[in-house]
Design goal:
By secondary structure, the chain is an all-alpha fold. The protein is 76% helix and 2% strand.
Length: 266
């Protein structure tokens, strides 16, 4: 039986109605930025390639918000966004990092690039499966856009200080393996989707935000790298800090189950 015969009349009618243009156009822009970044990497323009990864991340952050604000979310848009993310935040940064720094490592280098790619694919697949079952305030595993932007910010940092790609190359290799591991880990990262963030806050938060903007404007490359590094480390740090509380909770749940089991036997 062909795949076309499996399409129900309802699905055919939805296809005939068309798709929502605006959010999918933004997703296409994200995909274009990722592709152009690959072209720049192949041409040896690594700093340009890094900048286009950030542009792709901005478009990726906008498409979902535009779709929700305009009431134009769709199954097609979700699937299209996921495929675009795999290219822009999986293939593109892997190719950039391999072309820029990992090639001298030989097999170890391209394996690291592929590991980054496959972990990005697994991260996206897991997100699609768990999107309705996990809390929206936190991501399980490092988001692929954050991992890709960390790769891009590393490249820009090296160009900012005029360091060659061979400088601290083992640290670069370690960074790729770390990012790959964090994407498929169970560490939780803030999604910044908490509604409380846009509600009334103490005046000190405004002052802190203004100071942060000034510092970022003064040293955008260094501060972008620093902020992304802190975000990446926030997952493991939060896991360590909350470990005693989780252990106490697990013990309490285990004791409750044992007590329930004894009551059932009695």
């Amino acid at each position: 039986m062909s795949d076309e015969s499996a399409i129900t009349p309802e699905k055919k009618e939805n296809i005939k109605r068309g798709i929502y243009i605006l959010p999918n156009l933004i997703t296409a822009s994200s995909l274009f930025a990722g592709f152009y970044s690959m072209v720049a990497s192949l041409n040896g323009n690594y700093s340009t390639a890094a900048i286009w990864i950030f542009i792709s991340a901005i478009c990726d952050g906008l498409d979902g918000k535009v779709a929700r604000l305009t009431g134009t979310t769709s199954k097609f848009g979700i699937e299209f966004d996921s495929l675009a993310d795999l290219v822009a935040f999986g293939v593109t940064p892997a190719l950039l990092m391999y072309s820029w720094a990992l090639r001298p490592f030989g097999r170890l280098g391209w394996v690291a690039a592929f590991l980054f790619l496959i972990c990005a694919a697994l991260r996206l697949a897991r997100f699609n499966v768990q999107v309705d079952t996990v809390e929206s305030k936190r991501f399980v595993g490092l988001p692929t856009p954050a991992a890709a932007c960390m790769v891009a910010s590393t490249v820009l940092l090296f160009f900012h200080f005029n360091w060659p790609s061979s400088y601290k190359k083992l640290a670069i290799l370690g960074l790729i393996y770390l990012l790959a591991f964090l994407m498929v880990s169970n560490f939780r990262f803030n999604s910044f989707k908490d509604p409380a963030l846009i509600k009334r806050q103490p005046f000190g938060f405004l002052l802190f935000g203004v100071v942060l903007l000034i510092v970022v404007a003064a040293e955008p490359v260094v501060m972008t790298f620093t902020v992304l590094l802190l975000y990446i480390l926030s997952g493991p740090v939060d896991y360590v800090i909350t470990w005693p509380r989780r252990r106490r909770l697990e013990k309490a749940v285990h004791k409750g189950r044992e007590a329930h089991s004894r009551d059932g036997e009695a």
